[in-house]
Sequence to fold (488 residues):
Amino acid sequence: MKGRNALAILIAVVVSLGVVPAGPGSGSYPVMAAEPNDKIDPYVLEQLASDGVANIFVKLDSDADLGSAEGIRDRVRRLNFVHKALVEHAARTQQEAIGFLTERGSRFVAFWINNSIYVFAADLALVETLAQRDDVAYIRGDHQVPLHKPAEANMEADSVLAIEWNVAKINADDVWNMGYTGEGIVVANIDTGVRYTHEALVEHYRGNNGDGTFSHDYNWFDPMMDLSEPSDQASHGSHTMGTMVGGDGLGPFSQDVGVAPGAQWIASKGCGILFCSDFRLISSAQWIACPTKVDGTEPDCSKAPHVVNNSWGGGGGDNWYESYVRSWLMAGIFPVFSIGNSGPACSTAGSPGDYNLVAGVGATDVNDVLADFSSKGPGTFRRLKPDFVAPGEAVRSSVATGDSAYDVFSGTSMAAPHISGTFALLLSANPDAGLIDLYNALRTTAVTSLGAPPGPDACGGRNFDSYPNAIYGWGRVDAAAAVQAIMP
Fold:
């Protein structure tokens, strides 16, 4: 995205949202294709047949070399290195395609996060011409990815505990007693937005100036440019953010719904009420890697979060999101994804939660039994999925219906923020810990004395009491044990 010209396009064009969510195994397209038609997403062809035009992503045939980033220890230098490498590679490799689209009069937005160009209202002739180009790897439609919609929960929303059961279950309160609550760490979500004025969240919003005023630049982003301050019409994003940071831990506030109440939060509105369009998701992914002002200008990578929570995903085996997940990882930003609510069958782990090097999270109940809805492995990209499980059945957290409103939701959407919050605790205890260190701290300390899963085995031919397995992964997170393991 380049300055105000791209922003004008965004404001002027309403992105089509009428996409059927991809089913399991769909949306996985080859990076290189022998024939032009093999490069085209079948959904694009369906849209063209019915509507005559389609909004498309044109993925270029190369990605930036980010390998040198791993040797950069200074966080801001690493973030800037990755951003510079991605931007320069995209500018160089997209030049000819952009020239062609400009000459043709097409409206488009160029993305550096995964070296792609989003083209508005492409007709069949344009799609076929683009597919014939040697520098184009494939053409994808603007899919809508479902939120992992919460299931019904059997618990009263106004049941107030000083520390919510799920927070205590993973021993987060024991970490607070050690003196770590996530101070100095920034978490983010790509979700339906956040009610920033909520009593459990407002003090942790990085845009809170502390004097009754707020600065939303670099702290909030709406890819559609509709909302200049954090807002949430669905409550989903407010709920997941509450589980990460809500409350004040050992302080006087009695609504302790969050795992890391000392951390700060920022957010990008990658989702509507039920779905997250690929356009919104990639715009959000790019902003996470290098936040901008609310209007999309003046990027400042030093403002990037340490952890990004994603409680969304589609069917398994979709490799579209790999490029920008890889960019986050190389920049030192840890991605956490819910694994999906497609249980109880095996092999239902969704993407991107089924990727390598992301924490894909399943949901358990108060008795440490896997929730019936929680998706299971084996995964498409890595057989060991989920990576971890966390409380996700009847979790109480902040919602967007009022500044002091709470509700109880169930879903793997509710489980993933426990892992994101735990990463914030780990980083506050050891700011120099790397991504592999964080993962290994959870892996080696996870609780494995868990309840039996539904069915006779743990999927993939392993008994449920053998860890890791494709139902509980490495086990249920134990924040206190993980912090003790990672302390320098």
User: Anything to note?
Assistant: Residues 1-34 have pLDDT under 50 and may be disordered.
